[in-house]
Amino acid sequence: MGFIADVLKSCFSRLKVADLEQLIRQWGYLNNDELSQLDFSKSKLCVFRDVLSFCEDKKRHKEALRKVNDLDLMCTVKNSTKKKWTMYKLQDKKSGSKENWYSDPEKFKRKLQQQVDLYFDSAASVSVTLQDGALWCRLYLPSGNHFMTANAVYLIHYPNSHCFAISAFKVSVQNFLFQCLSNLFGYHTLTSMNLSGLQYKSLFQLAFNKLGETSFGKLSDVQSLPFISRRKRKAEEIEREPNLRSEDVAMKRHRSLSLEAAFGEYQQPVLESLRFKVEAKFMGKKNIENFQDNGEPFRCCVKFEGPSVLDGVRNLASCGLANEPLPKHLLRVNSLGTNNFVLKSKEKS
Amino acid sequence: MAPGETSTSTNRCMTTPQTFKSRLSHRFTPKRFTPYGRTPQSRRISTAVPTTRGRRKNVHTRTKSRSDSSSEAEDLKGFTNVTWRVYKLSPLYKFSSAPKDLKRYGQLLSSCVEAANQKGLFVENNVSGKALFCVQEGLKKTADDPDAIQILVKGKKGLGTVDTVILTATLCGVEMEGDLLVPDVKGHFTYYPVLLVKSTVAMTDVLITWLMRHFDCKISPLVFPPVYMAWMIAMWSGALANTNRKNKPVELVYQVPSECEGIKKITYTIEAADCLRVWNSIHDSKSDMFTEEEMSTFISSLEEHFYSLFRVKLNAMQLSCVGTSLCYIGRDGILKIYSAEHVSCILRHLTELSMEHFSLV
């Protein structure tokens, strides 16, 4: 029961007090009598102790363990932005394999459990749920007797898409884990897209923009995809306030039109960072008389960070902190489907 | 500065029983009166501090120290790889570095920590602290420098049974140029320009409050405006910490103005060797002094390269943190030193900055 207590403690520590009651009720493991005995106005620690005692009273260890694993997955779904997700794409379909696309969470769980049992200890557990059209999976790959959050790996997959998002995992389990997933999806290669962030829907949107299609071919009706956001961007203050007058209307209008042509009128996908590794000729020698140009590239790394970097890049131009036209490597992030770039000077042939 | 008044340090007014003269007695000054020191962004470096005349010392300058050996680096190793908060101080009244006085200060600070603990000021309850004051070796470089003092508070956190160091602090002044204290009051005051502290916020507050009350001084954070950090980048990006190992890259962190929503900061990291190449093209390595013009050219050339890549104007943003092979400095007075061999020169520069603040008041 110590293991169950550790998992429950981990769940409760991640949950906000306001979300606790709703999630416990949604969990469905406690009956109405037990739920009525819980006092959610007390501290989280009190509620945790009560829930743990109910789990222990049931005396069905395996079922209790499975249920707390499900609760852990529900907590992750609720607080998905607390995890950093990395996108991988599926390539090189295995010959002879059928399209293993599952939208039924139970089927998906059974298949995944089969693969996990082949490569990992029998104590490894799998939980799957369907949320907002996506399959959410939790794999617990134990190393030792105690529960460790580092041993839990989470995965998000939209059925019929050629990519998935995965949370951090130990390097030691990578080979076996990817072998499981390769067999599950029926593809030889799982390639990192160099795309990571906290907002999984934005990551899937960027990945879809890059990959461009699902197993049914290119979809003409993009708006039906659950991860595509179609909210228009917030109007600028000058557009919102009719009493504000700009001194340079023509310039601002021209800038606004060119930015709309470059970025569109919809909100950008949310990315927290954009990284560029640059190896290019040094271009800052205008004021340097005797620059020692030995032909070596000038190596630097640039990182843009913020709550929504793609919107921020657009705003840099609209605030006048960047001059137009912006370079292609800033404008094409949406279609390139990555947030880690390498920029090099073109070599003279 | 009032007309007719010279800028030598001996004429800085310490003739009243207070250690500094009230600004109200300065009449006919062309400067606007404020109760605060003039912020560095508004001054021209070439005229603000006559002693430096818009120049800064090279990190490789021969110091006036007695020894520069590796044993000194060993003594100062405790300063490296630790995140310090930097404070500036006004002179301490009746402070003594004699062993019996240091022992007494330790007892007084211990009782102050205990009293704060009783009041429940610490998040971790039962922080029982014993304070120790001792002389820090390796930082007194000239006869004008006061003995550097190390302050340690050891104790048990919470229900722990092992003694740990809860607070580490150092009072120092390295290669202090000139004496800002007039002879009349020099016997009563000791001037430490720099206080480095590593501890929790609550414990740091206790130490600072105790020092201010006990020695009638004023302690405030030593903030580093962007122009100071630009100087540090120019001075230290040319210094490689250890030529046998790969040096840390030069890092400039720019804070994006809040009106540009979506991006908070831009981190611009440059390989140390490439940065050195640019610096050597601007600055004559044989010269000991850097000029403001060299510093401006260096920073603007790096920003120009950035602009050519991204068309983003870094010169419209402010530096918030800078990092070199030697150290990492944040605008709010955060310091982390990586190289034990260069602790003295970094502290020397901090001493200079702190003394500039004091002399401007």
Automatic annotation (TrEMBL), chain A:
It holds the Pfam family CENP-N. The lineage of its organism: Eukaryota, Metazoa, Spiralia, Lophotrochozoa, Mollusca. It is found in: Chromosome, Centromere; Nucleus. Keywords: Centromere, Chromosome, Nucleus. One of its GO terms (biological process) is CENP-A containing chromatin assembly. Belongs to the CENP-N/CHL4 family. Its main location: nucleus. GO terms for cellular component: chromosome, centromeric region; nucleoplasm. This is Centromere protein N.
Automatic annotation (TrEMBL), chain B:
Residues 39-50 have a biased composition (Polar residues). Residues 30-72 are annotated as: Disordered. Belongs to the CENP-L/IML3 family. PANTHER family: CENTROMERE PROTEIN L. Residues 53-64 have a biased composition (Basic residues). This is Centromere protein L. The keyword Metal-binding does not apply. InterPro entries: CENP-L. One of its GO terms (cellular component) is chromosome, centromeric region. It is found in: Chromosome, Centromere; Nucleus. The keyword DNA repair does not apply. Keywords: Centromere, Chromosome, Nucleus.
